[in-house]
Amino acid sequence: MAETVSDRQKLFELDLDNQKKNIFVTQLHDRDDEDDITAFPVVKETGDKLIETGINTLQRTLLLKKEVEVDKVQAELEAKRHEFRQRMEACAKRQIEIQKRQQKMKDRVAQFGSFLKENEAKRRRAIQKYQTEVKLKEQKTVELEQLEEELEQLKDTLSRLDRKVSRYKKFEDYLLRVIDVMPEDYLAASDDKMKGLMSRHRTLSDSNVHLVNKLVSMSDELEDLKGELDVMKNEHNKQVISINSELSRLQQVQEVESAHNQKVENKYNETKGGMRQKRTELGVILMAIDNIAEICHKRLDVPVQEMNLDQKLRKIRDYVNDRADVAIMAQPTEDEETPTGSRRGSTENSKKSKTIKNLKVTING
């Protein structure tokens, strides 16, 4: 890429020949740097002629010179264009080659990336497999140790059972002798009579333990019941004593009440005649009240039979008060009509008014 930029810069540069220095010759001796100096001849003509001839020749010279320079520049330009095209073609080829190289590099990188991924996946699988195998190995090692421990325990158990079998061998012999001497119908029919005998012994032993426990519990219960019976007897004796004392007290109270009732009965018998007379008088008074209430009854009032004693007395009181008020209102009129009446008449009227007032006060009371 750097070469392409430098080529492009060179392509646009314009190469010119080294220009010689224009120097007027003022000395006659030779110079060392004559090769680089353009010599101008000494002009001896007059200025007018020089100008007239110089202008014509100068224009033609300049025109030719410019044409030559233009041709030269055009040739150089064509050469530069050709060189530029060649360089551009070379650049395009190099760019294509670079792109191909880049594509190859990308392909190689992709292949290498897939290769790395595969290797990474293989590495991970290998690590996982290694870890799994390590864990499996540890697990198997632990299981092996446990199995070895169980084997040792089983060996110990086997040796202990062998010792126990040798120790209990005499009991087996004893049971065999018992089976030989016991009746045939003592046990149920079975293939192994020794197991049947042991199960029968186990059943009898359990029954014995159960009965002993039941006997102990019943003995304890009997002791508890005896204690409760003693307590109940004591409470019964206390209750009998308290009931007897209460009975004696009630008998005394009964005797006192009987004496009091006898006195009351005697007194009642004595006052029975007086009570009969009072009841008779009370009946007469009630009949008189009913008769007076009938006299005082008005047409719109409640019937006398539906009134109680207080209502009847109030009815009589109201009736007497009304009559007394009427008598008092009528008394002054009689006095005005007989101003010269006898003294006896005035005295009788005053007595009547006093009697009415006393009756009114009595009924109100």
UniProtKB/TrEMBL annotation:
Coiled-coil ranges (or none): 127-171, 208-235
GO cellular component: cytoskeleton
Boundaries of every DUF4200 domain copy: 63-180
Region (Disordered): 328-365
Keyword check for Lyase: no
Record keyword Coiled coil present: yes
Alphabetical UniProt keywords: Coiled coil
InterPro entries (alphabetical): CFAP_domain-containing, DUF4200
Top-level taxonomic group: Eukaryota
Protein name listed in UniProt: DUF4200 domain-containing protein
Organism from which the protein derives: Dreissena polymorpha
